[in-house]
Amino acid sequence: MAEERMQTGRGIKPVVGSPRLPRMTEAPPPAILIGGKNLLMPAKPKADTGTAKRMPAVAAGTVRQPKVHPEMQAPKTRPTAARKDGYVTLRVRVSESGRLQVVGAKAVEGPLVDPKLQGALAYEVTLGRKRLASGGIPDVGEQRSFPDPKAPVPEMKGHHVVPVPTYEVNVRVRKAEVAAAELPKLEIALFRIKEELPEEAAALAAEKPIGEQFERELREVGRLKGIKPDKLAKPLADEIKKAFR
Hints:
- This protein has 245 residues and is mainly β.
- It has a domain at 87-243.
- Helices cover 7% and strands 26% of the residues.
- The protein has helices at residues 201-204, 210-213, 234-243; strands spanning 87-94, 100-108, 121-127, 130-137, 142-145, 160-163, 167-174, 186-193, 218-225.
- A hairpin with a 2-residue loop joins strand 3 and strand 4 (130-137).
């Protein structure tokens, strides 16, 4: 038997599920009678005059008013000593004779990542026998000239490197490693890297001074023994003290 499909459209007779039930109309449904009567709530009901099972009236003075709380405030914290985060960049001038002189200092926020011991020079900052910082300095102590492609002679077409008698380098040390009162005991050593250092140099440098570990690969250029702000010009002394504050 073929399945009948429902048809839609105008002129189609409605589907009657149960012919015995009355047909639905647009008229409102009949009201439900209560006790055989059609009861309606009056528009203005009478006041309650009953006395049985009634809650006693509450006096006006006993009504609790909601508490008014002050606005929330940020919790107070105990004052703590300021942490010495960040590091200090010391600008060090190196003379032709190998004399080291601090000519500037600047505090920098954020962590310090020691540069690898590679390049032309290497520096080391120590306090007694403790190594505080070290790093490599590439391309320093020399002046490079750009080649001239239209040079009349071949010698002028290539790069020319000329050593300079005086130059400046940046030395970085963590602020938490040294206090301002310890600056007179701080030492800064500068080394020339003669041979490439082994790959484990960065790990070994944390144990003891690099000059003792790599005597063959490094040659000391100069050493600054102590930074004494009281013997420096006042602007420079104030700059160093502010950086290590």
